[in-house]
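Q: Hi! Curious about what Formate dehydrogenase looks like structurally. Here's the sequence.
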Amino acid sequence: MNYRVKANRDIVGKAREFFTDLLDKKLLDGIIVPLELPSGKSYFPTLVKDKKLIERANPFVPVFQVSVATQVSKMTRLSPFEGKIGVVMRPCDLRNYVELIKFNQIDPTNLVIFGVDCYGVFDPNRFKDMAVSGEKPADKYWDMVEKDDESELRRACRSCTTPVPNRYADVVLGYFGSSGDLLLMAQTEKGEEILSGFGFEEAGSLDEREKIVSSIKERRASFWEKVKEETRKETSGVDNLLAFLGNCIDCHNCKDQCPICFCKECFWESPTFEFQSSDYMDWANKRGGVRLPTDTLFFHLGRLAHMSSSCTGCGLCEDACPREIELQRLFKMVGENVQKAFDYEPGRDIEERPPLTTFKEEELLELGE
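A: Let's find out. The predicted structure is below.
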C-alpha cells in the first residue's frame, strides 16, 4: 500500500516526525539514520535510541560518508539484533546490503529497511566546504531536485540508474513525483505492519513518479555510456591502465571503504608483500629502477578480480582516494562486463548466488576450452 503525508515541501521534517512516532509507538527499538554532527559540517549514520536526537536526522541528506550496509555487517555478523531496528539506506547501499546477506556477512533478522529516494549526493569534501561557508548543502539539494539539475553531484550519482530503492526495502520514503509531500510505500508484509496503524492518506496515482524516475534513468544511462567509452579508451592496455592508476599511493582506502571487500584475512595485508631489501635491489638492477610503492597495479587488478561481479558502482572507493583517482568509473565499467558475462546483477535477487560462490562445469564457453 502507498501513502501520502502532506508536507508542504518540508519532506525532511515529516520524515523526522515519522521516525519519532516509530520510536514512540515502540514499533522500533532503534533506528540507524544519518545524523548531523555537532559541528554541523556533515552527517554520519547513527544508531538512535533517544527520539530527541531525531531532530538532527536527515534520511535524504546529500552526502554518503560510509556504507550503512558495511556498518550493519559489523553489527550483526556475530549475532542479530534482539530488538527491532530500522535501517535507512539509499538505493546503491541497499544493493550492497543484499550482496552482503548473500555472502553471510549480514544477519537481517529483526531489521526493518527504510529505503529512500536518492537524486544523488555531493562529494564529501564539497559538502563540508559548503557547510563551512554557510551555503547549506541540504537546502541546495532540494533546489537541485526541483530544477532537475544534477550538475554538481558526484559523477557516480550522475551515472546511477537506480535512484529509487529496490524491492528489498520494507518501506520506501519517496519524493519523486510527490508534489512536495512525503510518500511512504510498503513493499513487504513487514513494511505494511509498520505503516498500517498510522491512518495515512492513500497516495493515489504514482504515474508522475514513474515518469520522473524513468526520465532520470534514461538520461543517466546515456551519460554513463559516454563515460564508459571514455574510460575504455583511457584504460585500454597495460600502459594506459598504469597511467590511469599512476598516482596510487597504495593506501588501500578504496578497499577499506568498499562494501564488497569484507575479508577478515586480506591477501593485500598479508606478509606476501613484505620483501627483503635485496629483492628491491634485484628489481632495480633488472629494470633500471623500481617504482615505489610497488605492486599498485597488481592491487587494483586483484580487487577487480575479487569484487567486480558484485560492484554496485556506489563510488565509495573514489571518495576515499586521497589522490582523487577516478576509480568508480573503472570499477563500474569492469563490473558491468563481468556481470554481463555471468548474467548477474548485484542486489537484484537475494536468492541469486554470486558468481564467486558458484561452480558450473559449463560456463564462459566463448573463452574456449
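A: A fun detail: Strands lie at 2-5, 30-36, 43-48, 85-89, 111-116, 171-174, 182-186, 201-202.
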